[in-house]
Amino acid sequence: MYQRLFIGRKLLHLAEVDSTNTYIKEIISKENKEVEGLVVSVDKQVFGRGQKGSVWKSEPGKNLTFSIYLKPNLFIQNQFLISKVISLGIIDFLKNLGIERTYIKWPNDIYIESRKVGGILIENSIKNNKVYSSVVGVGVNVNQVKFDLENNPTSIINELGGIDFDLKELFNQLLFFIEKRYMLLKLNNEPIIDNTYISKLYLINELKKFKVNNKVVKGVITGVSSIGKLQIRISDRNREFDLKEIEFLE
């Protein structure tokens, strides 16, 4: 039922590694053989990374932690489409499990209501004004029950209850939904990608507090630009921010 064309057809699973993103880049460099859809998964990631240099903390053997090697062939001004399709693939996966209240917190955290269930870290290689390759790191909380309080985390088991989920089966499903969304990018279906992403954008059209230049401001998220900047209306003025320029205050 969850047959895939190429993502995860070549799969390496490790017991422990510093970072799956780093490991997959080392494989490509050493073997000098690029296989789009190569996936490296791990039980325990020692130095998992998140946005702004943060650390992705995950209980070993309880969650899905992996990286995918992709060759999207995008112009650099369109590279945020990669984040969009990966995020939407995770959203589709959660919906398939029966979890409906899902959102994408810009730029690429996955939320169930106001709780973080997953995150993405994308590292692109640029050549000739195009994204030559992408290493996409993904973490999704599945069977972990207890967390540190940072980011108000949750997991699939905390949301759905029951006994531990079969990680192998869920991994197969997740890769299927990610590939399905990624194929929309390959087929240049940008309007579908953009419209669906906006419909799932966390806090869109809501008046919220943010920190800009060490000042607390109120604004309304209106969208995301083509290059991935967050668009916010502040004091009737439309502004755009990258990741280092703004902080959510919730």
Word description of this protein:
The protein contains five helices and 13 strands. The chain has 250 residues and is an alpha+beta fold. It has two domains: 11-199, BirA Bifunctional Protein, domain 2 (2-Layer Sandwich), CATH 3.30.930.10; 207-249, SH3 type barrels (Roll). It is globular, with a radius of gyration of 18 Å. The mean pLDDT is 93.
List keywords for this structure.
2 domains, 26% helix, SH3 type barrels, alpha+beta, 250 residues, single chain, 34% strand, 5 helices, BirA Bifunctional Protein, domain 2
- What's the helix count? 5
How far apart the termini lie comes to 40 Å
Strand content: 25-35%
Please provide the ordered H/E string of secondary-structure elements. EHEEEHEEEEHHHEEEEE
For the secondary structure, the number of strands is 13
Q: What is the assigned CATH homologous superfamily of the largest domain?
A: Bira Bifunctional Protein, Domain 2
Envelope shape: globular
Share of helical residues: 25-40%
Structural class: alpha+beta
CATH topology of the largest domain: BirA Bifunctional Protein, domain 2
Report mean pLDDT, rounded to a whole number: 93
Rg: 18 Å
In the CATH hierarchy, the architecture of the largest domain is: 2-Layer Sandwich
* CATH classification class of the largest domain: Alpha Beta
Contiguous low-pLDDT stretches (5 residues minimum) are none
Report the biggest beta sheet as strand number plus sense, adding barrel if it closes. Answer: 8 strands, mixed
Total number of domains? 2
